[in-house]
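FAQ: What does the model actually see?

It sees only this:
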Amino acid sequence: MALMVTSAAGANGAGFGKLLAFTDDGKPIGVFGDDPRIVDPRGLGVDRVDRALFVNSGSNRILALGRNGQVVRASKAIDGLNLGGGNFGPDGHYHVGLRNERTIMAFARQLNSACEYAPPPLLFWHSSPIAGCCRHGR
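And it is asked to produce this:
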């Protein structure tokens, strides 16, 4: 089993701007996923249904990577998204922190819709239109 670590780029992260893989005893394997959309990764989540690794790519989108590191699904780019960490919730959505907006956005596993929300029962739509926005909990 490989361990995955995001290595954020730039002055804030001072890292490599890559998704790095390590053996379970900590030895480096190398870069996992060389897709050019992975530029400043932050946050990882495992989709237990499809066994895909979700990464907040740093290019205003979320990518789902297969076991070989290849992108199997991708969200559309959303200008100014600036994602932080992410986790799958009990509702099956991939929940990510929006660092600038100080809120959470939930993405469908298929990465074909997203909505921004505060903890239930309140629901807030993202300020820019998102085609096919999902309703939290439905």
